[in-house]
Amino acid sequence: MGIIFPFYAHFFVVYKSSSLQQLFIIGSIPAGIAVGITAFLITRFTILHVIKMVSKEMESIAEGLQKISDNAFELSEGSKEILQAMTSLDKTQIEIKEGSGEIQKGVDKIVESMADVRNLSGRRNS
């Protein structure tokens, strides 16, 4: 900044002598360095502080989102287990229904056999 400014100022400033021009150029360099350091320090203590705060907040949000993601995964796994259990219960229900149909057929055969026995015993007694 201090090196470029004297060349830029040359378009707007009329020097009374060449020695004053040299003095202006020599004075511009430390002034430019001072302005640069001041701008750097202002940036460091204000903008960087804000960026660090935002970064910490973003980390906190990221942790919260990770917890939500973990919980969603656990719920998903639990849902899969519940679905498997319900499928197993459905299959068991079908097997019980089929089994009860077989039991009913057996009962019907027993009742039929008992009726046959009664008919046979009734014929013998007559």
Brief digest:
The chain has 126 residues and is mostly helical.
Average residue-wise pLDDT? 84
What number of domains?
1
Largest sheet: none
Summed up, the helix count is 2
| Helix/strand order | HH
**Unreliable runs:** none
Strand content: under 5%
Structural class: mainly alpha
The termini sit apart by 135 Å
Query: What Rg do the Cα atoms give?
Result: 48 Å
Overall 3D geometry?
A: rod-shaped
Instruction: State the share of residues found in helices, binned by percent.
Output: over 70%
What is the number of E strands? Answer: 0
Q: How would you sum up this structure, described in words?
A:
The chain is built from two helices and no strands. The chain has helices at residues 4-9, 18-125.
Characteristics of this structure?
126 residues, mainly alpha
Task: Write the topology of this structure.
Elements lengths: L3 H6 L8 H108 L1
